[in-house]
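Course exercise 7: structure representation. Students receive a sequence record and must write out the corresponding structure in token form. The form below is the worked example handed out in class, using Dihydroorotase (429 residues). Read each field label carefully; the graders check that inputs and outputs are placed in the correct fields and that the protein name is recorded exactly as given.

STUDENT ID: A-19
EXERCISE PROTEIN: Dihydroorotase
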Amino acid sequence: MNLSRNFYRLVFSVLISLGVSDLVFAQKIDILLKGGHVIDPKNNIDAVMDVAISDGKILRLAPQIDAAGAIKVIDISGLYLSPGIIDIHVHVFAGTNKAQKYMDGPNSLPPDGFTLRSGVTTVVDAGSAGWKSFPLFKKNIIDNSKTRVLSFLNIVGDGMGEFEQDTMDMDPEMAASTAKFYDDHIVGFKVAHYNGVQWIPVDNAVAAGKLAQKPVMIDWRGLPPVNSFEELLLKHLRPGDILTHMYHAGKSVGAASPLYKESVLDENGKVKPYVFQAQNRGIIFDVGHGGNGFVFGQAIPSLKQGFRPNTISSDLHIGNMNAGMKDMANIMSKFLNMGMSVQDVIARSTWNPALSIQRKDLGHLSVGAEADIAVFNLKNGNFGFIDSHGGSFRGTKRLEAELTIRAGKVVWDLNGLATDAWDKAAKSK
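STUDENT ANSWER:
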């Protein structure tokens, strides 16, 4: 008996020494992505590598992975491969409630039509639903989308719309208890569109955040006189809380609007010292491009002075999908052309957003992680980009999403990289 056991141990050792173990004991590979330039900020990977996917998970990354036995091999030589893009500011509670627009309304968009095609695999709806309307949001949108949909819960119980002026409906206990109950889906709380001069919305959202141990996202504006922007950043928000629309133009929110926002630049075009102080103390500054939240006149001087976004996001809604914003790939391209490296842009669109919403399971390509992947073609040429106020900017680089994989399944394939030629496909049927 002992002789037999020792014999098998010897055979096993010989197989390993000969490198046969990879063949004998290897897991199946469903998809093998070969030759792409992998950028995985969490794991400090910035190199040409192969990526193997099995059962919806990342199986292996290596300079060379044998394609023998792989069910599907996709050549992505010359392309960039990153974790799936995470957009932490969208509005996707789509419905027919015209009165409230974003809460189950037509201003929100169904996620799958506007995410996967730009490399986005995870979105966070920014306050369209409150604790009262979240179950409907989950039933109609979250549970029926290929895109992973998470939520910043509006501090207003009913959600986003005319409700948002009702301070009596800003209940931190109910918001926090709902967030705890739906912990896998709700990542924090949102304040937006409040036009008053009280601190109630912010303070109640922060109170909910403390109860649920989650961050808040703030869209800061109001009717003059607006509460102090400096006080908001340095006294009311906590490290880890998020200020969105960081490159807003300031002054009036719209040409015909009496609302006001304070910009990060002073009258001399310098980043205000307390803005740097806030970022250094842990306030997360988010792009939140949107239809009125990003202008080159704020972004370019800020970047030159070292004030960079922690996270890049779209503020996707019906008013900007065909305007200057377009999609996440377009926004990422703007930052490339304003001087950020592709590595920095990807970090601020993957791992940084994952950390900001306390979801360390997302935004990386670690072995065993869910296989959410974006493959981009970085094109060189003469391209134009538009900001929220119609200002244009010329650039020489544009990211285009070639392939998107969500949970190990190809969900976007721009140029048929993952499919067989038509004549081969016909013969195989």
